Amino acid sequence: MQPSPSSLSGRTGIGLRPEHWREFTETRPPVGFIEAHSENYFGRGGKPLHFLLSARESHALSLHGVGLSIGSVDPLCERHLARLAELVHLLEPALVSDHLCWTSVGGVHANDLLPLPYTEEALAHVVARVQQVQDFLGRPILLENLSAYLDYVQSTVPEWEFLAEVAARSGCGVLLDVNNIHVSAHNLGFDPLHYIDAMPRAAVQEMHLAGFTRNVLDDGAEILIDTHSAPVADAVWGLYAAAVERFGPVPTLIEWDADLPPLPALAAEADKARATMMEALHACAA
To answer: Which NCBIfam families match (predicted)?
Structure first.
């Protein structure tokens, strides 16, 4: 039987990446849960699935995808959905998520997560697509907010209202990436706390933390890039504490995908997230 999302309450975890597969299964670090990128395990067998099944024996799992292309006008890929459904059945994850984005058009796939124009038309389109996916999988999914580097002049709805309305109309949950909020707020010039305050409490069922890098443009302006290649920044820790005060002990994952540190250092970031969560909860109760 799959664990319920509520069973991960108060837990902090790490992404299970190929560089750590063997060490993780040999040492079983005491992290609260693990996350795996769904598409990396679509092969039926082989080393990837062997190590994930082994890790799943001792740790609860969140499956996180990048390939649904939920916002695309292309038809949903039935082959992708079928393989995801097989993986969900095999692994019984507590959470299944993807991104509020599009990744393909006209059958051509971009190697990136691309933002939507936030309009009423796009909202109705995304809600219908989410409902199709959830009906196919027989369970709700979570959608994650992106890091933004531009916005569309066609957008008529703030991103946070768009995401909240998708959740309300479709019944999906929200995977709130706190680092992405910080990056987008810096790049586009909005208050990150406003984004957090706009999210319905019950909708947020998982949070992500990650590191970013700074790029200086030719005109001297600084842009933040969501690279998942560094420790969580102090400003993001502060924003995470505010998010915990609003949403409670939501399961939280450390995302680190490039320039990976040793596994103990990654687990230490999850420990720091747990300590920050407990401090924020204590401050709320005081």
So the answer is: PRK05409.1
Alpha helices in 176-262 (DSSP H): 178-188, 192-198, 234-247
- Beta strands of the chain (E only): which ranges? 12-15, 34-37, 61-64, 95-99, 102-105, 108-114, 142-144, 173-177, 204-210, 213-216, 222-225, 252-255
**Using CA atoms, how far apart are residues 235 and 69, in angstroms rounded to an integer?**
30
Q: What is the pLDDT of residues 145-175, one digit of tens each?
A: 999 999 999 999 999 999 999 999 999 999 9
Query: How many distinct structural domains can be found in the chain?
Result: 1
Q: Which domain holds residue 71?
A: 5-285
| pLDDT tens track for 43-101 | 888 999 999 999 999 999 999 999 999 999 999 999 999 999 999 999 999 999 999 99
Residue type, 241: A
d(CA 141, CA 198): 20
What is the CATH number for 9? 3.20.20.150
**DSSP letter, residue 101:** S
Q: b or e along 180-189 (b: 16 or more beta carbons within 10 Å of the residue's beta carbon)?
A: bbbbbbbbee
Q: Is 228 left (phi over 0), alpha (psi -120 to 50) or beta?
A: left
CA 227, 173, 65, 13 dihedral sign is positive
Burial category of 40 from C-beta neighbours within 10 Å (exposed 0-12, middle 13-18, buried 19 and up): middle
